[in-house]
Write a structure and sequence with these properties.
single chain; mainly alpha; 2 domains; 3 helices; transmembrane; cell membrane; membrane
């Protein structure tokens, strides 16, 4: 084997190793495609959760508005959440 051929083989081998390393980093590295896809899924889940929380905030603000404006809404919450009744009312508990 002459010197030119062995240099070509070494350069080819070095390029092959560099390409293999670059592929490894591309797919499995800290910022690789697999990590990116995982992060993208996490982002979608967090965005969905944020949407749910924003909806709940909107519902609570609406309930606050109703409680400030409508006295019967306060009574409804007291009955529903606290189980309050008037003294002359009779409660019937039915089995399911």
């Amino acid at each position: 084997m002459n010197e030119g051929t062995s240099k070509g083989v070494l350069i080819g081998l070095a390029l092959l190793v560099a390409n293999a390393w670059a592929q490894y980093l591309l797919w499995f590295g800290e910022q690789g495609l697999i990590r990116w896809r995982h992060t993208e899924k996490e982002l979608m889940a967090v965005r969905a959760e944020v949407g749910e929380v924003e909806n709940r905030i909107h519902e609570l603000k609406e309930e606050i508005r109703l409680l400030e404006k409508d006295p019967s809404a306060v009574e409804g919450v007291a009955r529903r959440d606290l189980g309050l009744v008037y003294p002359d009312e009779i409660i019937f508990i039915l089995p399911n």
